[in-house]
Amino acid sequence: MRALVTSSRNTFALDIIRKLGSAGHYVVAADTYAGAIGSHSKYLSAHVVTASPRFETDRFIADVRRIVTEHEIDTIIPTFEEVFYLAARINDLPEGVRLFAGGFDKLAQLHDKGSFQRLVERAGVPIPETVVVSDEDELHAAIARFPQFFARAVFSRGGVGLLTNTGPLAGKMDVADCHPTADQPWLVQPFTDGPMICTYSIIVDGRVTAQCTYSAPEQWAHSTGITFLAEDSTKTLEYTQRLIDELDPTFTGQLSFDFVNHDGELYAIECNPRPTNGVILLETAEFLQALHGVAPAPVVVEPGVERQIRLAVLADAFAERISHLGTSLHDLLHVHDIGHGWHDSMAMMWGPAALLHGAKLAHGHREELLKAMSEDIVWNGEQIEGMTPADAAALLDVHAQRI
């Protein structure tokens, strides 16, 4: 395989690069800035800087075309929301290259939290009651329905921009700062108490070929996981396959779902139509077997496997309250880092470059840093420059499915 891995700033992109490169595959990493951690792995054959898929879509597609041609790439593996721009412009990519992702219409249906809720209902997977609101009056009326509520934009990610009156994030965002519109509506649900359970799946031709179910015992600012512990996949594997069967029995790509474990019942919350850190818990041979679709049965990560982003845990140990320090120190001493066994330490040393990149995009607003770190590679439901009329129509259909 000659693979291009895009959005190499992500820890899970670095892991995919390591898995592919260590197995002898030719791997090129790409991102919109040179300091992306995955672009400095010793397992790379090359790394390239591209234009932003969000802000300079035509240039981004031209950059990808050039990389594919110059490096004779046969497979593109997206790791973040650049997948939408690649899928919408797939006809502009060189002939013969494979985009390891679903079609734009299916990805959009998964990413839009409103249409995703309807998909979940049709698949018969448990889901909290959901209200979609498109203006501020509707938002106020919806949150008044639930004594304990949880609200977020239909296009949101990474635990950023959450409105709730319950739990550790209560009051972190004010309702006056929430402005749903018809184009950018919000979801309101009753607060579903319980631990978050996440999944990472590889799907080939409509069949789940790998499944990792995991929790995040340690999180940065109650949002992004920094430690990852494998959990039982029995129920999540069943639910994931049900969702794929309902979505598209020919789907191929990487998907990640979030559930809440409420008194033993899993409730589907959202889908990230891309990889997440669950991939780190897969062994290299398991990942490659699943990617090629040759496993006779799904590869499933056994419960108890655990990894951490050591630099983030170390920072968290001193950023959080003193009572939290013991847990962080235990993790630092007893849990393997995501780089364990790779002997590729220089890659993670570029981690501060991601903060600098985010700070530049945040224009100095510290509270916006986490959001800004991915601002140039996200997709929030807009029409994409150069997309086909069929995909533009599909996008309107996805919006209609929210109701």
Automatic annotation (TrEMBL):
Domain ATP-grasp intervals: 117-305
Molecular-function GO term, any one: metal ion binding
Presence of the UniProt keyword Transcription in the record: no
Keyword annotations from UniProtKB, A to Z: ATP-binding, Nucleotide-binding
Keyword Ion transport carried by entry: no
InterPro entries in the record: ATP-grasp
Protein name from the UniProt record: Carbamoyl-phosphate synthase large subunit
Species of origin: Microbacterium caowuchunii
Lineage per the UniProt record: Bacteria, Bacillati, Actinomycetota, Actinomycetes, Micrococcales
